[in-house]
TrEMBL record:
Listed name of the protein: UTP--glucose-1-phosphate uridylyltransferase
Pfam family, one: UDPGP
UniProt-listed GO biological process terms: UDP-alpha-D-glucose metabolic process
Source organism superkingdom: Eukaryota
Enzyme class: transferase
Length: 560
């Protein structure tokens, strides 16, 4: 079978991508057997789009209606380029899971003082600064499905507060910003082939809102069979399970190839604020925007102080005077504990990014965006080992001039990654102001409670069935729930509450129950009419030690 000339790597088109410090020997990489085999398979995939019998791709993937043969060809070329970089690193004998900087760990240091700016030091906003908003666009990474929470559709469609979804809250925030400041800040949604149709259906209800919504698809790359290093899909219309969205680092290629970057620049936009759609703390911040303009920064990453819950989060490092992003998946095994150390690396990446659009255009047209490759191993439903080549958007910081991190308050990082997070957001700990979450003024402490729900609450359907209504937790410090537990209506939780239903047992917390500094375990099935008496109240001084004790030593409470 002859190779599709449109798919064949063209040295002139790739030369602009291989300039600078990340240059690879392209010719050497493509002469390998694996590269040639992949090239042939990708040519065949592209050819199936031309085949009239394969046109059903349009029906199976409606989100690809607008994608011409040329666009699909470009996607496959981008994938092939990423694949050849992967092969080149492997051919050099370097651990392909690790970026080159990790080969010399001693040269990796925490960020220098000038590489991280404290949020409190940022300039205050004046009335003259409002005009900067007209140069801003907001982009939400909207390609996730929320599979870890048992969802099958777009995660951004999940109701999280007052019957409003992630997207509802974002739209309300930006609409209020546009109306209040009399500006035009568009909302850009980067979807994936998994979420595009859901997103298009959802945004129809915003047609009369005071904002423009722009959507574009990130790339769709073929999964790679680990054994043969060949693509999983056999045709362009093959099942979705054989394809994957290649991480949020694909943002830069996708926004460029889709034409959205040129559209924003033509509209007079100079700055792009990027965040994940499930981070409810990622709202437009005037002070960061002003800092970007005044310092002529091309890239700003929001970071925040690390806690024990964040030790696996990516962090900024200083490598030979250059600020770079390092993810835990890229760290040598014998240095993982160093990476997780709060003493050495005190901050982590929130994935709230501020990008100068003119600088992005320059980088994409000159040196390109060769981001560190992250290998994501997976297994198919039939047990086959596959790999996904992904990239992280924050890694782009090394490609921009005058780039640095801003250490922001924790309130700007409120992701919903689990049902424990969801319970906190849905509760009375937070109130809403024009779509933005704010701490309830009746909360006496500035910190939020620690909530740990067990596996019975892991999936969203189970979570919803186990709470008749969301408990009042304004005075809660810590909640741990494990096992088969159900909550009634109008329940109040205060202080430290631990509820453990042992294997084969069930605990029902009745309507109107108030639990304050309580430890419950065993089998409890109480009725509303029964007066609840808990034998032991955990004293405040003993809370921490009791939480740490083996649950087998907990008292067993039974209703008579």
């Amino acid at each position: 079978m002859s190779l599709n000339p449109n798919l064949m790597p063209r040295l002139d088109s790739f030369s602009s991508r291989t300039r600078g410090s990340s240059h690879i020997d392209f010719k050497t990489a493509t002469t390998g057997v694996a590269a040639k085999a992949m090239k042939n398979e990708l040519s065949r995939l592209v050819a199936t789009v031309q085949d009239p019998n394969a046109r059903k791709v349009i029906d199976l993937y409606p989100d690809y209606r607008a994608k011409s043969f040329k666009q699909f060809d470009l996607e496959m070329q981008s994938f092939f380029y990423l694949f050849t970089r992967y092969l080149a690193e492997r051919a050099k004998g370097q651990d392909i899971l690790l970026p080159a900087v990790c080969s010399e760990w001693d040269r990796i240091n925490p960020p220098a003082v000038e590489q991280i700016v404290a949020y409190d030091s940022l300039p205050e906003i004046t009335s003259n600064d409002v005009s900067l908003l007209n140069k801003l666009a907001v982009l939400k990474v909207n390609g996730g499905l929320g599979t870890s929470m048992g969802m099958t559709g777009a995660k951004s469609a999940l109701e999280v507060k007052n019957e409003m979804t992630f997207l509802d809250l974002t739209v309300r925030q930006i609409e209020h910003l546009n109306t209040e400041s009399r500006v035009d800040v568009p909302l850009v949604l980067m979807t994936s082939f998994n979420t595009h149709e859901d997103t298009l259906r959802i945004i129809k209800k915003y047609a009369n809102q005071q904002l423009r919504i722009i959507t574009f698809n990130q790339s769709r790359y073929p999964r790679i069979l680990k054994e043969s290093l060949l693509p999983c899909p056999q045709s362009a219309d093959d099942d979705k399970k054989h394809w994957y969205p290649p991480g949020h680092g694909d943002l830069f290629t996708a926004i460029s190839q889709s034409g959205v970057l040129d559209q924003l620049l033509a509209d007079g936009k100079e700055y792009l604020f990027v965040s994940n759609s499930d981070n409810l703390g990622a709202v437009v911040d005037h002070r960061i925007l002003k800092t970007m303009a005044e310092k002529h920064a091309e890239f700003i990453m929001e970071v925040t102080d690390k806690t024990k819950a964040d030790v696996k989060g990516g962090t900024l490092i200083n490598y030979d005077g250059q600020v770079r992003l390092l993810e835990i998946a890229q760290v040598p095994s014998d240095h993982v504990e160093d990476f997780k150390s709060v003493r050495k690396f005190k901050i982590f990446n929130t994935n709230n990014l501020w990008i100068n659009l003119k600088a992005l255009k320059r980088v994409m047209e000159t040196e390109g965006m060769d981001l560190d490759i992250i290998i994501n191993p997976k297994n198919t439903d039939d047990g086959q080992a596959v790999i996904q080549l992904e990239t992280a958007a924050g890694a782009a910081i090394q490609h921009f001039k005058n780039s640095f991190g801003v250490n922001v308050p924790r309130s700007r990082f409120l992701p919903v990654k689990s049902c424990s997070d969801l319970l906190l957001i849905k509760s009375d700990i937070y109130a809403l102001s024009h779509g933005q979450l704010i701490i309830n003024p009746n909360r006496l402490f500035g910190t939020t409670p620690v909530i740990k729900l067990g596996d019975h609450f892991k999936k969203i359907a189970n979570f919803q069935s186990r709470f008749k209504s969301i408990p009042t937790i304004i005075e809660l410090d810590h909640l741990t729930v494990s096992g088969n537990v159900y909550f009634g209506r109008n329940i109040t939780l205060r202080g430290t509450v631990i509820i453990v239903a042992n294997e084969g047992q069930r605990i029902d917390i009745p309507d109107g129950c108030v639990l304050e500094n309580k430890l419950l375990t065993g089998t409890i099935q109480l009725l509303k009419s029964i007066d609840i008496t808990i034998i032991t109240t955990i004293r405040a001084s003993a809370r921490r030690s009791l939480i740490k004790k083996d649950l087998r030593r907990m008292l067993v409470y039974k209703s008579q």
